[in-house]
Amino acid sequence: MATSIPTAQAQTFPSKPVTMLIPFAAGGPTDVVGRLVGEHMSRTLGQPVIIENAVGAAGTLAGQRLMASPADGHVILIGHTGTHAAAVSLNPNLKYRPVEDFAPVGLVNTNPIFLTVRKTHPSGTLAEFVAWVKANEKAASNAHAGVGSVSHTTCLLFNTVVGVKPNGVPYRGTGPAMNDLVAGQVDYLCDQAVNVAPQHRAGTIKTLAVASAARATALPDVPTSTEAGVPGFKVEVWNAMFAPKDTPAPVVAKLNGALKAALADATVKAKLNELGAEIPSAELQEPAGLRSFVGAEIERWAPIIKASGVKIE
Ligand code: MLT
């Protein structure tokens, strides 16, 4: 009897539109990836996937929303390196445990992250920027998507390595932060390929380095942090899909099947690659693979956050 209920639920799932919670503002990297994948998933699931930007507390409010949602698969979430890994060490008041309190569906993508400056900035290289930010620390403005977001933690690592404490300027996501960088209102922003690639190609910003070991395929003209002289500046960002904790396994399997179908689709793949996002391995697209990956990422971020000395009070 106990097993027939989830099976019956899975047969009728989804019986209504699925809401996909995006923890940051529309137009940013999480939103762009979520919409792209969600549109394809709606075709597999036979129901619309509706995007809801549930913004707040550097993306962690969306996780709380998911925890309070019925465990029937009709509300899902795109979490990332910030909300489901770094937040654990950064935020002693975090209201959820990323591994224990959700049902992982699958890793969606990984995404290189870059240090970018406004087009009118006097620095043309990372070395010049390091010299500038050291000399202008008090005046420098560093845009980010809230304390604990990946734009924040990535630039925090850069600032820590370089030894500066600039003025942080928080936004509801890097969509609006990037708009202000393009408008020349802020000096610099650490942001993901999905947001950076279109602006870089249009020449509206300057992209000084990618925080990865190798150059990004989508932006091969941008040097790595090591090539640019700051080897300690290395971060990889990921987005992952979660459902509420007690979602029946057959429902999670249906969501996972729809996610994998989206990631295997040639058009979705081409679009993600054009935006600089990478498709994860088959293992990480599975719920079990994602569960152990998130656990490892929480461990990996703990010493980085500790060394930075930053904590959300
Ligand atoms: C966004 O989608 O706006 C970003 O992923 C936020 C962030 O920097 O974490």
From TrEMBL:
Task: Give the Pfam families listed for this entry.
Answer: TctC
Q: Which InterPro entries match?
A: BUG (IPR005064), Bug_dom1 (IPR042100)
Q: Which UniProt keywords apply?
A: Receptor, Signal
Q: So what family is this one in?
A: Belongs to the UPF0065 (bug) family.
Query: What's the protein here called?
Result: Tripartite-type tricarboxylate transporter, receptor component TctC
